[in-house]
Amino acid sequence: MNNDTTLSRRTVLRGLGTAVALPFLEALSPAGRLLAATTKSVGDPVAPPVRMAFCFVPNGVNVRNWFPERAGSDYDLPWTLEPLAGVRDEILVLSGLTHDKGRANGDGPGDHARCASVFLTGAQPQKTSGARIRVGISVDQVAAQQIGGKTKLPSLELACDTGRNSGNCDSGYSCAYSNNISWSSPTTPQAKETDPRAAFDRLFARGPAVEVSESETRRRENRLSVLDFVREDARRLETRLGRGDRRKLDEYLTGLRAIEVRVQKTPSSTSWVSPDQLDDLPDRPGERMEFDTHVRLMCDLMVLAFQGDVTRVSTLMFANAGSNRSYAQVGVSDGHHGLSHHQGREDNLEKIRRIDRCHVEQFAYFIERLRSVPEGEGTLLDNCMIVYGSGIHDGNRHNNENLPILFAGRGGGTIDPGRHVRYDYETPLCNLFLSMLDRVGAKADRLGDSTGRLRYLTS
User: Fold this and answer.
1) Comparing C-alpha atoms, which of 68, 171, 3, 94 is closest to residue 385?
2) CA–CA dist 239, 236 (Å, integer)
3) Nearest to 316 by CA among 50, 121, 115, 56
4) 51-195+286-440: which CATH number, 3.40.720.10, 2.40.37.10, 3.40.50.12780, 3.30.70.1730?
5) What is the pLDDT of residue 17?
6) Mean pLDDT (the chain, rounded)
7) Centroid of chain to Cα 189
8) What is the 3-state secondary structure (H, E, C) of 379-393?
9) What DSSP assignment string belongs to 81-137?
10) Lowest mean pLDDT among 113-127, 220-234, 349-363, 366-380
């Protein structure tokens, strides 16, 4: 058992090639922390940090069923947003926000590629299908570059679709634009992980590469858990914890193991691949997880990462821009992208709203999971800021004003959710991102086309 400032200021359970960072415990609070000689902790305990995550969905939404009619706290959830009823008081519905740089601005067609690349950057992508890609640094990476040294992983990028970063994916735009929302520099998209197994291993791997490899091999061959490698450390810690902390530790490790079991049962080929990408794969994809299962596993991994302070910054792409995935689970066999060009047809609009609601159900699951985790005097969700949305308003119009944006969490007590906030059209979405950077302790005077901080996040 040790506490390493390069990982966290919390206690860390260690084993061969493995490190399990733990949630905040009462014994480590200013009033009841363990003696430094016992825990080998460094420095004084700190308040729970504020985390941020961004969830992207493609192709816009059926806007008729998205935006509430009334602003303020006295609003009714439209049909698409009804899955959020149980966490309504934790949500801000934000309307009127815009990404001007998602528009053509003289560059012609390619709205889907632009909507993904602009989503977290607020920057106009340079139109090219070659190597000269350029857009901007994304908000998550601005944060990661400033606060990422406080955690094991500076950031965690997850996705449910594979996708190449070369070639033409949308009207002369590189596939890198369609398949990424996280950019560490204007020319470098962050690699995203689509395999829950690999993502899980990344959260808990620690030490020299040879030890990590040996740990993973032993787990696979002997059907062991990461907890088997840190069990002795956990037992030593338990002897020094009070009853409440022991219960919290047991619940955390039990939850971790439950997710690990689900991850181990996932097929090796996990992400959806569009038909035009099959020839790019070494082998044609075999068994694949259902979309709902895949997204929820990724959400659970983000919860684990935030709970153990493995990272404070994460992104999740539900699908790549322009995705043509079908959703048989909600009775939609047509491809999503094709349906988004609905031409006002009621049958297409009905199918789109089913897809929209399916996506919102997964987001609601994520928020409920965050809220279920006690932390400090509140919950993990209280110390998070979660953005959900698309870089396109309506898939048929391909417009970029009045984007469908949801915001969850209280940002460490600095945000008042439970409202529909209506902004003037052309208010930059990047203004929200600047406000979020302030709350995680990252400094930025500007991001993309921002014009200042976003108002009305407190009532």
Assistant:
1) 94
2) 6
3) 56
4) 3.40.720.10
5) 86
6) 89
7) 16
8) ECHHHEEEEEECCCC
9) GGGGGGGGGGEEEEEEEE-GGGS-TTS-S-HHHHHHHHHTT--PPP--SSS------
10) 220-234
Nearest to 16 by CA among 203, 217, 229: 229
Q: Given a cut of 50, is residue 5 above it in pLDDT? A: no
Helix 226-238 with 209-222: angle, nearest 10 deg: 100
User: Three-class SS of residue 164?
Assistant: coil
Give the mean pLDDT of 408-412: 98
Bridge partners (DSSP) listed for residue 161: 272
* pLDDT over threshold 90, residue 388: yes
What does the domain layout of the chain look like in residue ranges? 1-46+202-265, 51-195+286-440
- Rounded distance, CA 337 to CA 84, Å? 25
Q: Is 394 helix (H, G, I), strand (E, B) or coil?
A: coil
Q: What's the rounded Cα separation, in Å, for the pair 356 and 64?
A: 11
Q: How far apart are the first and last CA of the chain?
A: 44
Per this entry, what is the length of the chain? Answer: 459
Whole-number Å distance between alpha carbons of 354 and 332: 8
Answer whether residue 250 shows pLDDT above 70.
Answer: yes
- C-alpha dihedral, 200 to 203 to 206 to 211, nearest 10°: 10
Phi, psi of 24 (to 5 degrees): -65, 130
Run of H or E residues at 261: helix 243-264
Which helix or strand (DSSP H or E) is residue 18 part of? strand 18-21
Q: Are strands 18-21 and 12-15 parallel, antiparallel or unpaired?
A: antiparallel
Query: How many other CB atoms sit within 10 Å of the CB of residue 262?
Result: 15
**Parallel/antiparallel/unpaired status of strands 156-159 and 313-317:** parallel
pTM, entire model:
0.91
**CA atoms of 318 and 416, how far apart (whole Å):** 27
Neighbours of 251 (CB within 10 A): 13
402 contacts 95 by C-beta, under 8 angstroms? yes
State the residue for tokens 């086309």. Answer: 449
CA separation for the pair 211, 227 (Å, rounded): 16
Query: Scanning the structure block, which residue is given the tokens 């990424």?
Result: 180
CB 140 within 8 A of CB 314: yes
